[in-house]
Design goal:
Helix content is 57%, strand content 6%. The longest helix has 70 residues.
């Protein structure tokens, strides 16, 4: 019976060692996971704050640029008569009709205003510039006759 008792003790001790080692390993990995989770949460919070600040900065730059685009005709270095400029906004900023204030327009100027560091034209703006340079500009008219005008001319 002594051998059976020794085998039983060995089996119980082995089972306890396996259970204890499994428990210790699980605690170790759970601790490492919590540390990783906390680090990722902190990194995410830092990234979110950075993204918020960048979004605010970008928004301010865009708003400042749009404000500047509309105010350019009233700045001292604007080389046209402000009353002859018409703000469009997109895809180009404005059209200027030099001579319009005197009743004799001399030319049509398509004006794009760039603020900030990049100052690059969008692909659409480059295409518009190319079309203007190639003379691909034309005049068109739409005449609408209202119903009231039809009755007057018929009677």
């Amino acid at each position: 019976m002594e051998i059976a008792a020794i085998i039983a003790i060995i089996v119980v001790v082995t089972a306890l060692i396996i259970i204890l080692s499994n428990y210790i390993t699980r605690l170790k990995f759970e601790r490492r996971f919590r540390e990783w989770q906390d680090a990722e949460l902190l990194r995410w919070e830092v990234e979110m704050e950075k993204a918020r600040k960048e979004a605010i900065t970008q928004s301010r730059a865009v708003l400042g640029g749009k404000f500047t685009e509309q105010m350019v005709p009233y700045l001292p270095d604007f080389k046209y008569d402000p009353t002859e400029a018409r703000f469009i906004g997109s895809p180009i900023d404005m059209i200027v009709f030099p001579g319009l204030a005197k009743g004799d327009p001399e030319e049509i100027v398509i004006l794009e205003i760039k603020t900030g560091r990049s100052g690059q034209l969008t692909p659409q703006q480059k295409k518009i510039r190319q079309l203007v340079e190639e003379g691909m500009v034309r005049w068109d008219e739409i005449h609408r006759v209202s119903e009231g005008d039809d009755n007057k001319s018929a009677g």
